[in-house]
Specification:
Layout lengths: L1 H22 L1 E9 L9 E4 L3 E10 L5 H4 L4 E4 L3 H11 L13 E4 L8 E7 L9 E4 L10 E6 L1
Parallel strand pairs: 1-3, 2-8
Antiparallel strand pairs: 3-6, 4-5, 4-7, 7-8
């Protein structure tokens, strides 16, 4: 009976270690945007062992979302222009992201001055060394509010 209990405990411990390893790390990032159409970071980096990525966007300005709203959108660099163009037609009700746009890896809702929003997305959508860009999809903002997203 003792041998059975010992073997069961060993199997559970081994299985538990594999589950923890498979679960990977939750990687947390923060970025702010202001009333001057600027993010506080031009680059965000996560290690390649992340399983989930949580991003918090905070609008540090005072202007409302209707006039100076900010979003955070992540995509392959080659897709950014097309996503921006499609987002204009999608409008504010859709956070300037075309519904169902498969090119968008992750995106937040629009926030105005003093507001924050967070999103969590799977890191499996990203490849180490891939060419990714984050940007604000509020009309006209991507010209200034853009940066590189690095996995590795």
């Amino acid at each position: 009976m003792k041998l059975w209990t010992l073997m069961t405990c060993a199997l559970l411990a081994f299985g538990g270690a594999r589950i923890a390893q498979a679960a990977g790390a939750l990687c947390k990032l923060q970025i702010t945007g202001n009333d001057l159409m600027q993010y506080d970071k031009k680059e965000l980096k996560v290690p390649s062992d992340c399983s989930q990525i949580e991003l918090t966007l905070t609008h540090t300005g005072k202007l409302p979302a209707q006039t100076m709203g900010h979003t955070w959108v992540l995509a392959k660099t080659t897709d950014v222009s097309a996503i921006i163009n499609a987002g204009i037609g999608a409008g504010a009700a859709n956070n300037y992201v075309a519904p169902g746009d498969k090119r968008v890896i992750a995106s937040t809702k629009i926030v105005g001055g003093g507001q924050s929003t967070s999103i969590t997305f799977p890191a499996s959508a990203l490849k180490p060394g891939g060419d990714y860009t984050f940007f604000c999809n509020f009309p006209g903002h991507a010209a200034l509010m853009t940066g590189k997203f690095i996995v590795g």
